[in-house]
Every structure is written in C-alpha cells, then in structure tokens.
Design goal:
Blueprint lengths: L5 H48 L1 H8 L3 E5 L4 H12 L3 E6 L2 H14 L7 E4 L5 H15 L4 E4 L5 E2 L7 H29 L2 E6 L12 H20 L5 E8 L11 E2 L10 H4 L4 H14 L3 E4 L2 H12 L1 H17 L7
Parallel strand pairs: 1-2, 1-4, 2-3, 4-6, 5-8, 6-7, 7-9
C-alpha cells in the first residue's frame, strides 16, 4: 500500500508538538527552580507584614509606649492620635493651639476608654527658641519618649518668582528646622536608652517637585535628606528612623496653606478632597511603627510612577512638569492642583 502524501506532514507536526511540549516542560522546571529560593523569603515577608497588620499583635508591640505626635490637632496628626491611643500607648498631643488639642483629648477619652490619659503639649514648630524647652517638658511627663512622630507642618501655593522670601523661610522653618530641632532635643535620651523610633511625615513631594509648590517641595526634600542621613548614622544603634511620604490626603492642608505674599490660601483643592482618608494613612503608619519599617510611601500609582520617571528619565519628567505648569498658568489655576 502506498503512503499518502499527507502522512509525512502529519509526522512532522507530531514531532514539532512533542518538541514544543518538552521545551515548555523544561522551561517550567527551570523557572520553577530559579524561583524556588525566592518563595521562602516571600512567604516570610508576607507573614511578617500580616503579623503586624493583626491588631492584637500590633497593639502588644506598642502597648504602654510613649508617643509624642506633633500637629496632633487635625488631619493626619489627629488620626494618628486616635490610632495610637486605641493601641494602648501613652500619647502626648502637641500642636500650636491648646484648645484644639483639648478637644482631641476629650474625643479620645470619650471614644476609647483607656488606662492612659492623653497629655497635651502646646508646641509651635516655627518658634525654634522654645522647642528645646518644650522637648524637656514632654520628656518630663513620662520620663522618656519611645516614638517621636514629626507630623506638624504647613503647605504653600504660589509662583516662586512672586513669593516673598519671608514665606520661604516660614515654610522651611516650620516643615524642616522645627522637626529637626525637636528630633535633636529628643534623640540623646533615646540613645541613652538605646531604644526609640523616629517618624518624619514628609510628602511624595519630598521625592519629586511639582510646579507652584517651590517652598513646600524644598522643605520636604530637606526633610527627606536629613532623616535619610540620620537613618544611616543611627544604623549601629537600636534607634530607628522611618520617613513617611504621603500623596494627597483628605486634610485641611490646602485650606491652611500660605500663598506667595503670606496670606492664607483658603481653598480646598480637588486633589486633596479626593485624597486618602486620614484614618487609612494613620493605620498604615501605625503598622509601619510596630514593624519598625524604614520607609513608607502612601500614594497611588501615578505619584509612584512619577518618582520612577524622575529617577530613570529626568528629561521626560521635566517635560511633563513643564507642560503642567504651562497648562495651569494658561488656565489661571496656579493655585489649583
């Protein structure tokens, strides 16, 4: 019987399928073999994170710790006061307005009965001469500080060329020199005890700069640099440092921002209104505290991509920011995000 002309083609097809199947099989084995050493560290890391996300374990890690929070009268600071108080810590609330702090204190005691009564500490980060004394007062309350949360600050809206130098100084002192002065006043006592955790609430603008935020971005870049350096210098000790970089959060930051001539901005930016809930940000920060993380970025995909573009492709980043600046200026929306 003669062989049909289709049979060789059929045989070749079978051989090709067998070869492809073998290549896929060995490829899977190869990839699996390479990935296997990474599986265990990945599992350990996720178990570690889930451990501190569990409120029971997290609260045990933080219970009775002394936590000093600046900017505790509103926004992220107030949300942090709630989160730390619920975790059983001894909270010291610090901000400029004592009456606002007393309201937060009353709110905490009403909502979350605890064996610890929050302490109130009037503190103006812009008044550098008083910070050392306020730090001593804070230390005298419980004898030490376990966690220092540098959260207080001020925002800014305006064009660099039209901004009074006094405004640049005000923003820089409040956002940078104030937290640095407070940290330097508290740090020696932490080193004596060889224990402590310092949090610097910076901003995603501490990593990238956007148009019409020159004073604010500069202060946050300085904050990022100082606390990154401090983190390295303290690496031989048990005093840890964490820099938190939030994106937009639903606070009054834009309402209370200063403009180029020093006046209050007084507008709720839409990006701020649509931002992360402060309680969500506080929850992430308290988890980072329990886990003693060195960095925390609280921002969506777009800001994270912008940070990557700035590092990997600067020309593209500045092209995009230039386009943004021209668009906002043309629309007379310099003050808007």
């Amino acid at each position: 019987m003669s062989m049909s002309k289709e049979e060789p083609a059929f045989e070749y097809t079978n051989v090709f399928q067998v070869v492809c199947s073998s290549m896929i099989h060995w490829g899977r084995l190869l990839v699996g073999g390479l990935a296997l050493p990474l599986v265990f560290p990945w599992l350990v890391y996720n178990l570690y994170r889930s451990h501190f996300k569990n409120k029971i374990f997290r609260n045990r890690a933080l219970e009775d710790k002394v936590v000093l929070i600046t900017g505790a009268s509103s926004g992220i600071g107030e949300a942090l006061a709630h989160a730390f108080h619920k975790a059983g810590t001894r909270v010291i609330l610090a901000a400029r307005r004592k009456d606002a702090l007393e309201k937060v204190k009353e709110d905490l005691m009403t909502k979350y009965p605890s064996k610890h009564t929050p302490a109130v500490l009037p503190l103006d980060l812009h008044d550098l001469k008083t910070i050392s004394g306020r730090a001593k007062e804070a230390l005298s309350i419980y004898g030490h500080i376990d966690v220092l949360v540098n959260n207080g600050g001020i925002s800014y809206r305006g064009e660099a060329v039209d901004t009074d130098l006094e405004v640049d100084l005000r923003v820089m002192v409040t956002n940078y020199f104030g937290p640095v002065a407070l940290t330097k006043a508290i740090l020696p006592t932490m080193l004596e005890r060889n224990s402590g955790f310092i949090i610097a609430v910076s901003s995603i603008q501490g990593k990238i700069a956007i148009p019409f935020r020159s004073a604010y971005s500069a202060s946050k870049h300085a904050t990022q640099a100082f606390f990154d350096t401090l983190k390295s210098e303290l690496s031989h000790t048990e005093v840890k440092v964490c820099v938190v970089s939030p994106g937009y959060v639903q606070t009054n930051l834009s309402l209370n921002a200063v403009t180029g001539d020093g006046k209050q901005y007084g507008v709720m930016d839409q990006t701020t209104a649509d931002g992360m809930d402060p309680s969500e940000a506080a929850e992430s920060i308290i988890i980072a505290t329990a886990a003693q993380r060195s960095e925390l970025i609280l921002a969506g995909t777009l800001p994270r991509v912008a940070v990557l573009i700035r590092a990997m492709c600067p020309w593209l980043y500045f092209y995009l920011m230039g386009s943004r600046a021209r668009r906002l200026r043309a629309a007379n929306l310099i003050k808007e995000d």
